[in-house]
Design a protein that fits this description.
CATH topology of the largest domain: SH3 type barrels
Membrane topology: Single-pass membrane protein
Subcellular location: Cell membrane
InterPro entries: Preprotein_translocase_YajC
Protein name: Sec translocon accessory complex subunit YajC
Number of strands: 5
Radius of gyration: 31 Å
Family: Belongs to the YajC family.
Helix content: 40-55%
Shape: rod-shaped
Length: 115
């Protein structure tokens, strides 16, 4: 009879240790997956977004840009949220469209466009 109660106590202790080990084996892969997503997806995207916001804040009159929609032109005016983009000249008059600053995808080198 003494052996049965000792064996039961040993079985319960082993089950508790195995439960903790099983829990760690379930949590560790989730942490590793999150770390991989962070370093390969989330962090680079945040870096690109920060660089884009700095580029949008640095826009000035006379810059030649291309928008996310593929429209290229020269900036004629800059407001807090919008820019005036000259895209063409008709009969010597500039054709200017208003766009949001954040729609600019790239600033081109000076002299690229012949408007």
């Amino acid at each position: 009879m003494f052996f049965v109660s000792d064996a039961m106590a040993a079985g319960e202790a082993a089950a508790q240790v195995g439960g903790m080990e099983g829990f760690l084996m379930q949590v560790v892969p989730l942490v590793v997956i999150f770390a991989v997503f962070w370093f390969f997806l989330i962090r680079p995207q945040q870096k690109r977004q920060k660089e884009h916001m700095q580029m949008c804040e640095g826009l000035t009159r006379g810059d030649e840009v291309t928008t996310l929609g593929g429209i290229s032109g020269r900036i004629e005016s800059v407001d807090e949220q919008t820019i005036g983009l000259q895209v063409a000249s008709v009969d010597g008059k500039p054709v200017v469209i208003r766009m949001q600053r954040t729609s600019v995808s790239v600033v081109l080198p000076k002299g690229t466009l012949k408007i």
